[in-house]
């Protein structure tokens, strides 16, 4: 994997992580109810779920490259089309709905980790997204180190972001800032997704 490809992957994973949504709401809820420690555990366990999705996706794509190269090629083009569709959708978006988080009493740290893990593990959108995203980067003969780099990139960026949320951005100011910049995040995400999809045509 080239540096340019890796930076593209980092950008998309990062923008995906910071977009307001259910995962952010869960991390904030446990941070506000149980403190920063609970929030960090929630974020780390969420990243573990993301890592499992990434691992399963990369493993499946690697098998396709070797055993069914034609099907992999079709999947690559389909993934590019899906990313392009997501990019257009993001560019046309009016921004995410305002995110609201309310406290409901302190929960255990085990429950915090469980909620973080489950919100990512049972998110079918992650499976589709990683399949479309990673199909643009997995190549024939890619060494295991390159595959592990992709998996680690997705999981580490996710975990770092939600840990940062729990550490320093857990106050009400975070919600107003993210909600206020939701449209900008969508625009930037849309442009990057479209550029990534165009790679298939230019390669």
From TrEMBL:
Membrane topology note: Multi-pass membrane protein
One MF term in the entry's GO annotations: amino acid transmembrane transporter activity
Spans traversing the lipid bilayer: 41-64, 71-88, 126-143, 149-172, 184-202
Compartments (UniProt record): Cell membrane
Keywords for the protein's UniProt record, in alphabetical order: Cell membrane, Membrane, Transmembrane, Transmembrane helix
GO cellular component terms, semicolon-separated: plasma membrane
Primary site of residence: membrane
UniProt feature coiled coil, ranges: none
Protein name: Amino acid efflux permease RhtB family protein
Species: Marinobacterium nitratireducens
